[in-house]
Design goal:
It comes from Paractinoplanes bogorensis. With 77 residues, the protein is an alpha+beta fold. The chain is built from one helix and three strands. It has a three-stranded antiparallel sheet with strand order 2-1-3, with helices on one face. It is globular.
Length: 77
């Protein structure tokens, strides 16, 4: 980290190299490593929501997708 630089002033997409603002929260866990109630979080812009979601879904890790900033119990969209 550079001195005096705290990172972006907004929530960014978790897709590699993407600097777009986050619109979605993807909550996931790896059942081989995490307890059932534990959640890791990736953020996604509108463009990367499908690819990040598919990556997690193919592995059986995706647990919920909500609009960024929504309550954690918001319905899956």
């Amino acid at each position: 980290m550079l001195e005096g630089v705290d990172g972006p002033s907004y929530a960014q997409c978790s897709s590699k190299g993407c600097r777009a603002s986050a619109s979605w929260t993807l909550r996931w866990n790896n059942p081989k490593l995490h307890t059932p109630d534990y959640r890791k979080t990736w953020l996604a812009c509108d463009d990367h929501r499908p690819t990040l979601g598919q990556f997690l879904e193919m592995r059986g890790f995706l647990r919920e997708v909500t609009p960024f900033g929504a309550a954690p119990d918001a319905p899956i969209s």
